[in-house]
Write a structure and sequence with these properties.
Shape of chain C: globular
Largest sheet of chain C: 2 strands, antiparallel
Chains: A alpha/beta, B mainly alpha, C mainly alpha
Number of strands of chain A: 10
Oligomer: heterotrimer
Distance between the termini of chain C: 39 Å
Number of helices of chain A: 10
Helix content of chain A: 25-40%
Order of helices and strands of chain C: HHHHEEHHHHHHH
Helix content of chain C: over 70%
Strand order of the largest sheet of chain A: 6-7-8-3-9-10
Amino acid sequence: MHEIVLSARNLTKRFGGLAAVNNVSVDLWRDRIHVVIGPNGAGKSTLTNLLTGDLEPTSGTITLGGRDVTNWPPEKKSHQGLGRSYQKTNIFAPFTVWENVRLAAQSRDPQQPWNPWRWLQDASQSAGTLARAERAIELAGLEGRRHTIAGAASHGEQRQLEIAMTLATEPLVLLLDEPLAGMGVAEAERMVELLLKLKKDHAMMLVEHDLDAIFTLADHMTVMVNGQVIASDTPAAVRADAGVQAAYLGEEH
Amino acid sequence: MSSPKANLETLPRSVQFALALGLVALAAFPFVGSDFYLQMVTRMMILAIFAMSLDLLQGVSGLVSLGHAAYFGLAGYALAFLTPAGEPVNLWWTLPLAVLASALAALVIGIFVVRTHGIYFIMVTMAFAQMVFYLFFDNKVLGGSDGIYINFKPDATVLGWLPFDLENKQTFYFFTLACLLGVYAFLRRLLWSPLGRALAGIRVNEHRMRAMGFATFGYKLTAFTVAGALAGLAGYLWGAQTGYVNPELMGFHMSAHAIMMVILGGMGNFAGAIVGAFAFEFLLHEFKDLPTLGAFNLGKHWQLWMGLFIVIVVTFAPRGLLGLLSRLSARKENAAPRPTRAAAPATPVVPRKEGSHA
Amino acid sequence: MDLANFLIQLLNSVQYGLLLFMLAAGLTLIFGIMGVVNLAHGSFYMLGAYLAYALSSQFGSFTLAIVGGAVLSVLFGLALEWLLFRHFYHRDHLDQVLLTFGLIYIFEEVRSLLWGDDVHGVQIPDLLAGSIPLTETLSYPVYRLFMSGVCVVLAIGLYLLISKTRLGMKIRAGAFNRDMTEALGINIKLIHAIVFALGVALATVAGMIASPISSVYPNMGSQVLIMCFVVVVIGGIGSVRGALISALLVGLVDTFGKVLLPQVAGMLVYMLMAAVLLWKPEGLFKQ
């Protein structure tokens, strides 16, 4: 069951002389949550952007579902099964919560913008899209908030919406950037429950700061400092690692 | 950017009612108006079609094109080239051909232009339109700066039978009205279609759309081409009605006027484009007709009044007339409007954020 | 084409390119730093030409007219920024397009009210009115060399200002990270006002020095505006260096195009722009 779904090898990204990500390798397995931690500026966001295709690597490879997707643009990777949620909420603020998720689900319909039939259909009637959107809304716990304008929803609801939109594209791989950011205790608990529920059918990578949640959720942990991986092991091993304690965890205590 | 990206996609009932009244008035007008006003209103309807085509691009998709008039003028020129000096040409094949010509031009230019964003997009659309302008302006063979006359309105004969005669001003008026309604219905349908929803998403957050798997280039290019085609329809009608085309029809001023019309009425719902076109043309007419006060010919300096008007509108009413009306009626109706669609809930009127133009 | 003719066309290209650069530099700075698109930039050029005409008639001296005009244009730029433009930095590009389009109308009418609609000429001062002989029959006007000279001096001045002075450093910092710059206590509003006024002044002075060659006529701003936009697109927004290289390129293509391929001359520059966009959608030297 623990097949490698996404594999990044020796990823490097240079900006001028600076290597924001330096020779980083990451594997994501189905039914496992891989958490990436590190201080600010460690290169975690850059790594995520390299994996999604928002940035092109200077060197290294990325394999997804057996295919080399190293230089693929984000939309192509999405159809190969990659889903991503954002640290800074990146929703469609003027639309309702429902429309946000429905639009995300619509991405799985055959695209064909040129097809005149797609100009005359009613977007709200596609059965496949509706089913996907319903599932995602349910999973994220947003049924009661469908008609809320996304921009007017509470912060916690917006974070839930972030996840719902990602789920609506039915990805195999979930790259979640600080899903717990800014959440209250109760909301965070619900989110952790959701993430554990999602684990079975997805290969998940989380970038997180919240140490308690990390140790609850993580099956595997990678620690990044200054663009490089200084440890990549089980949470217990990482916690015990002297180098990690000195560089990162030690400062947190 | 501070202006909210919410559009007035669903109008409040009172505004819808007012628009319906307007439609009735339009349909009844030929029976009460004089010939002169009939032609003026026909022209306004043609410009309304032009404005709606731009609304698809600007209001729905968020693509600000400063060169949309190129596709308007090209179709007019197509009719001019197809119409011989001594007799009319047939409506039923020249209209689609002219529209196709505009669509093709929009497609080709679109391939270059849609890859750019933001300010670049604005500038390159303007530049390519100017290229088309100079192509016609500099070449006598294409009519040059003098333009070309179209001596006969298109002939609507089909298989030997003449269903209607476009030389008759009233008939032309109703033909134009039919086109106006047809384009409106088509665009409203498109707005709620998968294409329309995707375009709205692209306007609000293109980056997220790509991350979700939408190949946004293809969607934008489609919008650009369809908008160009519809502008072509308007251009053909313009050429047919006025009987004259010149490079100014493709020029920068024409494009900017179209932008103004769309803004003035309120973007993103197509009714605003119609209202804006009528309002703008009416104003233009009034400004040019201003009397002379003492030694000062107010009408001659219409550009000053138009310029001031544009500056005032953009500073104080960036959501346009329908935006203003909707806010007024939203204050009257205290409850939020009910959703009007079954599965996809309506976006209730989103109040303009205060301070969006600090 | 023989050497003398080639030299003449080359000099013309450079002169036209440098003039375009003066306009494009201001435009690209204002875009790059404040994010404002200004369709009325061509109007400043037009106003400059009319100013040259009006002031040189008034003062009887072309030099005084230029100096006076430059000062007036800086004041005008500061006033315009303070009154209108600074309120539009955060607005949608669409609103900016409309605002500046409205301004084009207003400026045309103001010009019409102040100086009428006639075409005028501006006298070249005697000192610069001669020609340098190149061959027995061909010579090159001194004034055009003067124009190029002025543009080069201004270009060097701009370069020094931006890379070597503290003001230039602040300008670059403000473009890079506005909030941080403000947090450091730098008066970003003043920087913006200066940059804007600089842009206006460059365009106006360009119009002034070009006026003896191009004449002074209504609507002269629109054609140069388009060229300016093309230059900025090719060069890359915000890059003054890009604007220079791009302007010279456009000058070459346009000038030689008119001579060698007159039927398509008008379209050549746009074809160049299209080619650049295919290769680099954000211009050659995008920041």
